[in-house]
Amino acid sequence: MKFVKMDRNAPCWCGSGKKYKSCHQQFDERIREFELKGAIVPDRNLIKTSEDIEGIKKSAVINMAVLDEIGEKIHPGMTTLEIDEIVYNTTVKMGGIPADLHYEGYPKSVCTSVNNEVCHGIPSADVILKEGDIVNVDCSTILDGYFSDSSRMFCIGKVSEERERLVRVVKECVEIGIEHVKPWTFLGDMGSAVHRHALDNGYSVVREIGGHGCGLEFHEDPFVSYVSRPGTEMLMVPGMVFTIEPMVNAGTDEIFQDEDNGWTIYTADGKDSAQWEVQVLVTETGCEVLSR
Ligand code: MF3
Ligand code: CO
User: Fold this and answer.
1) Contact between 109 and 88 (Cβ < 8 Å)
2) Ligand 1 within 6 A of 108 CB?
3) Which of 60, 71, 270, 277 could make an S-S bridge to 291, C-beta 3.0–4.6 Å?
4) In what helix (H) or strand (E) does residue 255 lie, and over which residues does it extend?
């Protein structure tokens, strides 16, 4: 963080209305100590105020309601375009905006990534979900300028034991990630724990794409890796909001991008990939899941 020395009696930068000395001064000094030891520390603009957090939570109500509805309606024979229509309609009906729509030119309201698609699958009338498929539905929502972002895996009808295990293990990876979000420890402590669980189960984790800060913008700093090392990456401090969203592959971690649509990422070996995504707030004691 850029260290701006503040007047101890001036109002705190967080907008609480309290004096700096009785609000964020100690917090800033603690971050500064880590910075002096060479740690990567969050900039002040990554620390959410309580007003921001309320806004993100309201956005997340829509985000999770949309995914609940997909969970109720998804079935064999459904196209991924129908999923897109539900996401658009329900989001708008509840007063939100799908964050994906027109994001950097993205054409739809949601990502639907089936089987060997790692992420950014584009909904289409041509993609018909069939019994045995696994699909990630990644939904991002804007309400009053606040962003929420989460994704879930859905199993279409009865799926193979291998697929069921992949979906379950990636869910466990995310739960382990959540348990490892602790203030004044590092993102690499969390990311490495996620990675370890995937590796222990014989899977690989995508390196190039990961999580991100999220709340006032769709994608904020930091980049959140799940192939990181303990004690590395950004320091986690109360008030940070980011996503935990490992992409875990049954085979190689190598991936490639669709040359025609410029978006969809596939596994290089054609094997399956799965992902769950939650958005967390770092608290004084651990974290709070804002959307899932
Ligand atoms: N929802 C994705 C994420 O988790 C981002 C999708 S960007 C889009 O970060 F343009 F493809 F929609
Ligand atoms: Co995300």
Assistant:
1) yes
2) no
3) 60
4) strand 255-257
Contact 268, 255 (CB under 8 A): yes
The DSSP secondary-structure symbol of 230 reads: T
Distance CA 248, CA 203 (A): 7
pLDDT score at 15: 86
- Residue 241 parent element (H or E): strand 241-244
Q: What are phi and psi of 285, to 5 degrees?
A: -115, -15
Provide the CB-side half-sphere exposure for 116 (13 A, CA). 13
Ligand nearest, relative to CA of residue 119: 1
pLDDT of residue 4: 62
Does 106 contact ligand 1 (Cβ within 6 A)? Answer: yes
CA nearest ligand 1 atom 12, residue: 100
Ligand 1 probe mutation, 209, 214, 218, most atoms within 8 A of CB: 218
Look at residue 129 in the predicted model and tell me its pLDDT: 98
pLDDT digits (tens, 9 = 90+) for 123-148: 999 999 999 999 999 999 999 999 99
Compute the distance between CA of residue 206 and CA of residue 227 in angstroms, rounded to an integer.
8
Low-confidence ranges of the chain (pLDDT < 50): none
pLDDT by residue (tens digit) across 239-281? 999 999 999 999 999 999 999 999 999 999 999 999 999 999 9
Q: Return phi, psi of residue 241, to 5°.
A: -125, 125
Task: Indicate if ligand 1 lies below 6 Å from the C-beta of 117.
Answer: no
Cut 0.85: pTM above it: yes
For the chain, the residue count is 292
Give yes or no for a contact between 242 and 214, defined as CB atoms under 8 angstroms apart.
yes
Does the CB atom of residue 244 touch ligand 1 within 6 A?
no
The vertex-91 CA angle with 85 and 94, nearest 5°, equals 135
